[in-house]
Amino acid sequence: MSNEIFSVLGLFDSAQRMTDAIPLVRQKVAGRLEAYTPYPVHGIEKLLVQRKSPVAGMTFIMGLIGAISGVVFEMWANGVDYPLVTMGKPYLSWEAFVPIMFEVAVLFACFTAGLGMLLLLNRLPFFRHPMLHARSMPLITRDRFALAVEADGRPLDVAAVSDALRAAGAESIEIVENLAAPGLLSPRFLFTALLAIGLACMVSGYITYWGIKLFPKSIPVVHMLDQPKLDPQRESAFFKDGFGMRMPVAGTISRGHLPYTVKDEIAAEVLSNPLPRTPEVLKNGRQDYMTYCSVCHGILGDGKASLTAAYGAKPSSYHTQTMRDLPDGRIFHVITSGKSTMPSYAAELLEGERWGTVHYVRALQRAYDAKDEDIPEESSR
Amino acid sequence: MSKFGASRLLISGMVLGLVGMLASGWGFGWERFWGNWLLWTLFLLTIGLGCLFIVGLEHVVGAKWSVPVRRIPERLSGLVLLMSPALLLALLSLQYLYPWTRPESLENPLIAGKAAWLNVPFFVIRLLICIVLWLISYRILVTGSFRQDWQRDLRFNVRARRMGPAYMVIFGITISIVAFDWISGLEPTWYSDIFGVYLFAGTFLAALAATSLLLIHQLANRRLAGVGPDHVYNLGGFMFAFTVFWGYIGFAQFLLMWYANLPEEVFWYKERLEGLWLPIILVVAAFHFFVPFLALIPRDAKSNLRRLAWVSMLMLTAHWFDLYWMIMPAVGKSPQFGWMELSFAFFFVCLTLLWIRRALAQGADMPIGDPFLKEGLEFRL
After folding, report:
1. Please, are residues B66 and B72 in contact by the beta-carbon 8 Å criterion?
2. pLDDT (tens digit, 9 = 90+) per residue, A254-287?
3. Residues of B in contact with A89 (CB under 8 A)
């Protein structure tokens, strides 16, 4: 492993000699050519590199993919998944998508260019470049120009390469060996990587923690609470009377709502439930019952709930004969207007929701006092 | 064809064009005449101002690569001298094109609020100040450079480096004044703070395109020995970068107005995105941004003379149509093309060609007195 050859160096005493040697060497040997010089030699990269780098094309394609995925994601988010009217524009307005499309394209392209350079062109990751241990390195940093034929994955015919370099005018030859590089799975690499990740987590964690603690106003989320909109129950300088919440205009009612004019329970007896007894209605009624009624009346409707002891009132059970005989309209009236300590639920439940709850109360009563004929055929045997 | 013959042909072309212009102005109305006059004057003037900006910018940053090609923008900035009288002449258009000059316009509160800025005396004063500042800048930056050819006076470089930054400021303010006064003043109820920057972006691109075209012409005639692909690459790179700048600024102006949808802003876009005006701005967007951006992406394309030549021609076309799209909707309801437009094109194209023949004889082909010329010729990427 340690004897693997990285490259064969030929040293030249001028930039011109080395530049002239490049085509001569290329004729005779295959392999990657690389030059090491004390100062930049203009135009040499055109002679050294035969294949164009794939990074440019990759960057372009990834930029395109970024642009397309940006637009597609915005169209999906704004038009399909969570359609939200913004400034009265259509859901799919291309104008609004352009800045994000641009940013995502730039992001993808930058990452591709940066990572492509590091991984493909610079052939990272490795820890030490073998050239740093070459004996000629002090000369190269001073006044010598080195042309290297690199192994590039294939074994190198050292004798042939040395001859080619000498024939092209190299004054001396050095064979540079590959150091036993710590591989990606070596304990040393893994240890270093884990240590680096751990340190990075610690540092960023501390910075975040203290950043939030010391500068709470710096968090953008906090500012989202601070909006110019009008919150419920707040005053508003906009209206003369200073109330943020408004009364309905005199003589009007809300759309889809009729005023409830029934005065007492007896008068309510004539009301009949307008909703059909469908599974959908019962499901919604159950939901509303569980939310608003069950805390006092119990989930079975028997008046036993955790809250009642603390509250000091004794809510009635539905499962008495009196309660079973009550007409729907009276139950509806009690939910709407309240009775003794029970408050009105007209603000919490719409009219239809109250009727749905009545259906569910009826279902509870029937389930509690089930007869044999209530049991479905197939499970009764 | 002999030189004398060509000049005579161009002069007779100009006379013919002028006759056509005046006759069609008489026939079709002076409003349309002055609209066309303004369009062509601003087109050529902005190219001149932009070229002076390139010259000033190179002095500001102390660029060495551009010294061998600096004579080209210097010669082209003579368009400022040619077009300043034409802009003064355009003062006659005030009563035809600019609604704020009419006394009854003050009944509109939006125009009345701007009366401190939009009144004829201040308008003329601003124009005169602009022209004087341009002439001073031209004299120091360009005439000084021509004089250096035979005087070999090194103090010019010091003066130019002092004048350069001053011209940056002068250019920034005067181009905004040109944009606000002459273009957005056509519809005085409109608001856009970024409008000056938008005109600047198009101006700078057009100036780079004109410089590149003339550079390619000079290279084809072998009049710039020592100027190689590396110099051309820098110009191409500049152009590439500023295509995105133009797109960014143009779209930013549009996006903000589209989002806010305020009547005093959005009407300007509404009338320009309807009917035949829409294809015009689409062509401008394609020629100013999409096509040049894609065409100049590859590294080699930026120093490819053939590609740079047609990209430059697209850019100049785009700048003309950009101004057309900004100015003409305020003059006529829909795009018009007839004898008048043909005569104007004839006159101004002949005038420009005639002027370029003279400008190309002005001074040496390179600033031979500049001490940095040698360093500039040795420039490699």
Report:
1. no
2. 887 778 888 888 888 888 889 999 999 999 999 9
3. 259
Q: Which two tokens stand for residue B358?
A: 């003279």
All domains in chain A, ordered by first residue: 5-181 (no CATH), 265-370 (1.10.760.10)
Total Cβ atoms within 10 A of residue B53? 26
Q: Sheet harboring A5-12: ordered strands across?
A: A32-36, A145-150, A5-12, A172-177
| A61 and chain B in contact, CB less than 8 A | no
Residues of A in contact with B241 (CB under 8 A): none
Residue A1 has pLDDT above 50, yes or no: no
Residue pLDDT, tens place only, B180-212? 999 999 999 999 999 999 999 999 999 999 999
Q: Is A283 exposed, middle or buried (0-12, 13-18, 19+ CB in 10 A)?
A: exposed
- Looking at the DSSP bridge assignments, the partners of residue A34 are A148
State the nearest Cα–Cα gap between B18 and chain A, in angstroms. Answer: 44
Radius of gyration of chain B (CA): 21
B255 → closest Cβ in A42, A88, A95: A95
- For residue A87, give the chain B residue with the closest CA: B259
A95 close to B (CB below 8 A): yes
> Rounded CA gap, B68 and B79, in Å?
21
Contact A56/B at CB under 8 A = yes
Contact A95 B298 (CB under 8 A): no
How do residues A295-350 score in pLDDT, each as one tens digit?
889 889 888 887 777 777 788 889 999 999 999 999 999 999 998 888 899 888 98
Radius of gyration of chain A (CA): 41
- Cα B147 to Cα B157, B190, B361: the distances in Å are 12, 45, 14
DSSP one-letter code for A149: E
Amino acid identity, position A214: L
**Closest approach of chain B CAs to the CA of A117, in angstroms?**
16
For chain A, count helices (H), then strands (E). Answer: 15, 4
Residues facing A36 on adjacent strands: A146
Residue A125: asked if its preceding bond is cis (omega within 30°), the reply is: yes
pLDDT (0 to 100) of residue A215: 79
Q: Report the chain A residue with the minimal C-alpha distance to residue B260.
A: A87
Cα–chain center distance at B166: 20
Nearest-CB residue to B258 (from A42, A43, A95): A95
| Nearest CA distance, A195 vs chain B (angstrom) | 41
Residue B4 above 70 pLDDT? no
A33 φ, ψ (degrees, to nearest 5): -100, 140
Whether the model clears a pTM of 0.80, i.e. scores above it, the answer is no
* pLDDT tens-digit readout, A16-42: 999 999 999 988 888 888 899 999 888
Contact B211, B241 (CB under 8 A): no
CA–CA separation, B162 vs A43, rounded Å?
Answer: 35
Q: A–B: how many Cβ contacts below 8 A?
A: 20
User: B231, B245, B251: which to substitute to probe chain A, counting the most A Cβ within 10 Å?
Assistant: B251
Q: What angle do CA B322, B281, A85 make, to 5 degrees?
A: 130
Name the closest residue on chain B to residue A95, using Cα atoms: B255
Give me the pLDDT at residue B41, please: 97
The backbone torsions φ and ψ at residue A9, rounded to the nearest 5 degrees and listed phi first, read -100, 135
